[in-house]
Structure formats: structure tokens, C-alpha cells
Design a protein that fits this description.
InterPro entries: LRR_dom_sf. By secondary structure, the chain is α/β, with parallel strands linked by helices. Helix content is 33%, strand content 11%. The chain has four helices and four strands. The protein has a four-stranded parallel beta sheet, with no helix packed on it. The protein starts with 9 loop residues before the first strand and ends with a helix.
């Protein structure tokens, strides 16, 4: 399905399975991705890094209520998607304050000096 829409820039998929999410790598122009309640994958930190490389243009990412987003996964996603401006992670019980601070440090280091 997603292979036939390579110019799609906005995808909202509530309750998406990880198998379908693997198709996201074909969406080279994707800028906004909303995947709350992601389900169906067990090794999330390894899943996100290769899968998001194909969508490095993402500027808005909603991963609310997945309960699987760990500090390490968040860091890998932000490394693979360096242009994220809006990130929604509410309802993720696996994130820690340290993980969010690490993400902020990564953003600070990646921004051009003013």
C-alpha cells in the first residue's frame, strides 16, 4: 500500500503494527509521522534505527502511548531523524528524565551556533 504513495508527506496511523511500519522506509518525502500505540514488535531499539533512516526528513513525530519507547530508542530515532522539530511522547512509561535530557543535549549539539 505505502509503496504506491512515495510522495506522501503526512501519515497518521493509530494502532499500526510494526510490520506495516516497515513500509515507511519507502516514503522518502515523509515529514509528519503519527504512530501512537505502536504494537507488535519486541526489539524496538534495533527496529527504529534502520527503519527511520529512509525517512530522515521527518520533522513531526508523534509516538504517544506506545509504552515501548525507551531512552535508547528515542536517542536512535533522533539520530536517524535529525530534523525533528516536534516530538510527542506522552504516555510512554519507559522514558526517563535522563533520556529526555540526553535528547535535548543531542538537539543542542546538532543546532548551528547562533
Amino acid at each position: 500500500m505505502l509503496a504506491h504513495t512515495p510522495n506522501l508527506i503526512d501519515l497518521e496511523a493509530t494502532w499500526i503494527s510494526a510490520d506495516l511500519l516497515e513500509s515507511v522506509v519507502q516514503l522518502k518525502r515523509l515529514e509528519r509521522l503519527s504512530i501512537p500505540r505502536l504494537q507488535g514488535y519486541h526489539d524496538y531499539s534495533h527496529f527504529f534505527s534502520p527503519s527511520f533512516r529512509g525517512s530522515s526528513r521527518i520533522t513531526h513525530l508523534n509516538m504517544a502511548d506506545t509504552d515501548i519507547l525507551t531512552d535508547e530508542t528515542l536517542y536512535q530515532i533522533t539520530r536517524a531523524c535529525p530534523y525533528i522539530q516536534v516530538l510527542i511522547v506522552s504516555g510512554n512509561r519507559c522514558l526517563t528524565e535522563e533520556g529526555l535530557l540526553r535528547w535535548c543535549d543531542h538537539l543542542d549539539a546538532a543546532s548551528p551556533a547562533s
